[in-house]
TrEMBL record:
This is Acetamidase/formamidase. Residues 1-24 are annotated as: Disordered. Pfam families: FmdA_AmdA. It comes from Microbacterium trichothecenolyticum (Aureobacterium trichothecenolyticum). PANTHER family: FORMAMIDASE C869.04-RELATED (PTHR31891). InterPro entries: FmdA_AmdA.
Length: 400
């Protein structure tokens, strides 16, 4: 990779010192490996900016249950109005060469409509119609690969939002911090300086995931892209790395799935407002779990449910963080009873003794809490696996 500052820390306006680049390639549209059964580019015809799909939106791709899609996702950082809505100029101010700025980000900034006062910041790709998905089913989304498209990202504290409303940012309306990716001891890390403009000596590990994965809501009104909900959306659960699965309750025929808000790294809480926001190429597999099979495996699932190799992760959401915590406890009790038949008072005791409840984020209007229930703790208890619909050959195919 040439012509880009791949290890450099800056604030919202000041310049910084360029250091050694990484070897990460720039994954412009159509460039590099595309492992999915289908490929969905981020174009003005395949994205929404600041809103999420609803039942009346037409799908941009139709697939069979069991098929995978490679998505080119685009970060909102660098394309927003308060950053000039010109990603070439914005990233040039941080030492990034024009050829290292994504062409699809430039096109979206120039031609996709967004009301900066009424809409959210996120670019979402889709929706994708999954054949056979019906309300009451679960859509199983398996994260197969997440590949950085660029070797840099941005962390922002803007519009007085974040965990410390009224305190930060100090004296500025917006603070956007450029964070370049470097290679340290064979691993990719994000970098930051200790003092503005100095050498980026602070290094933190990357763990890419998609902050937004969701299904369309019923009705004709597109939801705002910021608050998460039963439909998924901007859930910002950093456990959703490669090899994990998200289950979402289907609300409309075909599910109408979408993805966006790519992250390179995020701490639980996401306290400054954003994490390390940066574009990813994501390959996801979509499977429909029929309603009866879903109930047999997990009981009644009314919101996002994550599964990692180690944990089942129910969620709770509410504008009030305490209420979100209580909702997550109730979801956890329901899951344990539905999957393993454990009495409520015993499950409550188990959660108190053995389960961590983590704050997903506190900055997205609706706060999120997620629990990590170790499946190994229940290895001696019979359980049913969520059997998806049998795969079929697709007649859709191709690239969008």
């Amino acid at each position: 990779m040439s012509g880009v500052a791949a290890e450099r820390g800056t604030g919202s306006t000041d310049g910084g010192r360029i250091a050694a680049p990484t070897s990460l390639p720039i994954l412009q549209p159509g460039v590099g490996p595309i492992p999915g059964d289908h490929y969905l580019r981020a174009t003005p015809d395949t994205v929404l900016w600041g809103r999420l799909p609803c039942a009346t939106d037409a799908s941009v791709l139709e697939i069979a249950s069991g098929e995978s899609v490679t998505f080119d996702t685009v970060s909102h950082e660098g394309i927003l109005d308060d950053q000039g809505k010109d990603p070439r100029a914005y990233f040039a101010s941080h030492g990034v060469a024009p050829e290292a700025v994504l062409d699809d980000a430039i096109d979206i900034a120039a031609s996709v409509a967004r009301d900066p006062f009424a809409d959210g910041p996120h670019v979402v790709v889709g929706p994708v119609h999954v054949r056979g998905a019906r309300p009451g089913d679960l859509l199983k989304i398996t994260v197969e690969t997440l590949v950085p498209r660029v070797p840099y990202g941005v962390i922002s504290n803007r519009h007085g939002k974040g965990a410390l409303v009224g305190e930060l940012p100090r004296g500025e309306h917006n603070v956007s911090v450029f964070s370049a990716v470097a290679e340290r001891d064979g691993a990719l890390v994000g970098t930051l300086p200790v003092v503005e403009g100095a050498e980026p000596v602070v290094a933190y590990p990357l763990a890419p995931f998609l902050g937004t994965m969701g299904v369309a809501v019923a009705g004709a009104e597109r939801p705002h892209s910021v608050p998460p909900g039963d439909h998924g959306g901007n859930i910002d659960i950093n456990l959703l790395v490669e090899g994990t699965t998200l289950f979402l309750p289907v609300q409309v025929e075909g599910a109408l799935a979408y993805v966006g808000d790519p992250h390179f790294a995020q701490g639980d809480g996401e306290v400054a407002l954003t994490a390390l926001e940066a574009s990813l190429r994501a390959t996801l597999r979509f499977e429909v779990v029929p309603a009866d099979a879903a109930r047999a495996a997990f009981g009644e699932v009314t919101g996002p449910l994550v599964r990692t190799p180690e944990y089942l992760v129910p969620t709770g959401m509410d504008p009030d963080l305490d209420a979100a915590m209580r909702a997550c406890v109730r979801s956890s009790l329901s899951l344990i009873h539905g999957r393993w038949g454990m009495d409520e008072h015993l499950a409550y005791a188990y959660l108190s003794a053995a389960t961590d409840f983590d704050i997903s984020q506190v900055v997205d209007i609706v706060s999120g809490v997620h629990a990590r229930i170790r499946e190994a703790d229940f290895a001696a208890v019979p359980a049913v696996e969520p059997e998806p619909l049998a795969s079929e050959s697709s007649s859709g195919g191709g690239v969008a």
